[in-house]
Amino acid sequence: MGALLMFYRLALAFFSLCLAGGMASAQTKPVLTVYTYSSFAGKYGPGKAVKERFEAVCSCELAWVTAEDAGSLVGRLRLEGEGTKADAVVGLDMNLAAEAKALNIFAPHGVDVKGLTLPIAWTDDTFIPYDWGYLAFVYDSNKLPHPPKSLKELVEDPNGPKVVLQDPRTSAPGLGFLLWMQKVYGDRADAAWAQLKPRIVTFTKGWSEAYGLFLKGEADMVMSYTTSPAYHIAVEKKDQYKAAPFEEGHYLHIELAGMTRTSKNPELARKFMDFILSEAFQSAMPEGNWMMPAKTPAAGLPAAFKDVVQPSKALLFTPDEVQKNRRAFVDRWLNATAR
After folding, report:
1. DSSP characters over 284-325
2. pLDDT for 47-87, tens place per residue?
3. Do residues 70 and 37 touch, judged by C-beta distance below 8 A?
4. Residue 274 to residue 260: CA distance in whole angstroms
5. What pLDDT digit, counting tens, does each position of 314-326 carry?
6. What angle do CA 151, 153, 157 make, to 5 degrees?
């Protein structure tokens, strides 16, 4: 009897372990791995809100994996190739779209893009836009009461304001400004860089370092976005920070998302792509990423965005043009600023 009782106890214990293991397995949620840049998923970015809102409707876990910026994301994807663990990527931009598409790891998004509030029509079937803004020089109006009214005035006035810029090899706004200079000056861009060089405090690796130097008073103006003053108004209750409107127009910056064709959770990835253009995601962009949403929420934009500069003209190279000319533009910039 003792041996039989022991057998039943062992069998019961084994059954209980199996049952517990089965319940744990049933309770395990699928994980959606999304690559993004660090500030998006960081303490002050919209990543936390996006994660919570998507997890509330997906019965899954959203796991952010971060790189420093858009260029770093493309570099990582290039190294990983079809072995990437990314199910989706949030944080690419128009200037790197052709380069990212050439990696051949992205699947068609299949998302209905009707009703977008972008300055341009959207027809791309691989990437969807999630926010946008115009590049602009931001300044403190208490310290610089008469900012330049055009890019040419900024560049060509030897007594003009000192500026801090981002490196176009490592920074999305840095590359954007390189393309802006190219749009305005064309074949004379080399000479324009040489004129501006004496008043360039430094080229930083990314946006945050440049903006930090500006706020510390190291420069009169910083390359940023027309939406940047909205942050100071909403969060700091300061209205002296302005974006200078330029007569030639401003370079357009559009941020993109895509899903990988190698995703182990393709249906979940598609659900996330649809979610990106939903009210829940889009409403987190203005005061989370401090950019214009790709689809304006029903409630409209926050009050801090009321006086955001509206450029008279959107300047933009196509993704294919950027891919074709980027290296040559960067080489010319290096030669002009190294003299």
Report:
1. TSTTTT-SEESS--TT-S-GGGTT----SSEE---HHHHHHH
2. 999 999 999 999 999 999 998 888 889 999 999 999 999 99
3. yes
4. 14
5. 999 999 999 999 9
6. 130
